[in-house]
Structures are given as C-alpha cells and as structure tokens.
Write a structure and sequence with these properties.
Helix content: 55-70%
Number of helices: 6
Oligomer: single chain
CATH class of the largest domain: Mainly Alpha
CATH topology of the largest domain: Arc Repressor Mutant, subunit A
CATH superfamily of the largest domain: Winged helix-like DNA-binding domain superfamily/Winged helix DNA-binding domain
Strand order of the largest sheet: 1-3-2
Radius of gyration: 19 Å
Distance between the termini: 40 Å
C-alpha cells in the first residue's frame, strides 16, 4: 500500500465535506466548509487547499464547463482502514480499547457498536455466496 501524506486538519475538514456531499465544485466546498467550521474562509484559500490536496493525491478533479469538480481519491472507509493500519497495525481491537480507555464512546455509540458487532457475527455465521438460492 502506497503511503499517502496525512491530511492537515483543514484538509481533513474538506475531505469530510466531499465524503458527505460527493463530487463538488470549489464554490460548494467553500460554502459547506464555512458552515461546518463556523468561521469565514476566503474562497481562494479553499481553492488553494484543494490544489495542494490534489498534488498530495488526496483528491482529484474533472472540469465541468469553467468549474472544477473535486472528489476524494479514497472513501471514508478506505481512509479509516489506512489509519487503522498505520496507527494500530490493523488491530481494530486496539483502536476500540484506546477509545474505551479514553472514555470517548458514549452509551448510545456503545449500544450502536454492540448492534453492529452482532450483525457482523450473523454475517460470518451465514455468509452469502454467489448464486445462492438459484437451483
């Protein structure tokens, strides 16, 4: 796996905007980013950050008329997996242990995680196979 540079905190905020909205113009990213961070940001700053992010291979763009439409190179899930691999050598249990130790998981999130774990266990016991049900 090619090692990518870690995004800065502002670049991470831009990625969150792109993950939630999908491919977006600089104008859209600028507007949504300002709403997300609750502060004024210069349009040119956002435009420059997107260009830097493209150089770092964090985003890519295509032209639509006179606008550039940006999208992340990696999904949120792929980015989370890269983080898990880089920081915890792929051990999800170590990540969860850190979160529990730091008391960063609310009771609601803990209940949701328990439900997700139960669903994952069911999928592992009864994996779907291609062509299942066809006879």
């Amino acid at each position: 796996m090619t090692e990518l540079p870690s995004p800065t905190s502002r670049e991470q905020e831009i990625l969150k905007v792109l993950w939630s909205t999908g491919p977006s113009s600089v104008r859209e990213v600028h507007r949504l980013l300002q709403e997300a961070v609750g502060e004024e940001l210069a349009f040119n700053t956002v435009q420059t950050l997107l260009r830097i992010m493209e150089t770092k291979k964090l985003v890519t763009h295509r032209s639509e008329g006179r606008s550039f439409i940006y999208e992340p190179v990696f999904s949120r899930e792929e980015s989370a997996t890269r983080f898990l691999d880089r920081v915890f050598d792929g051990a999800a249990s170590q990540l969860v242990e850190c979160l529990l130790t730091a008391e960063r998981i609310s009771p609601g999130e803990l209940a949701q995680m328990e439900s997700l774990i139960a669903q994952a266990r069911k999928r592992q016991k009864h994996p779907r196979t291609k062509g299942e049900g066809a006879s």
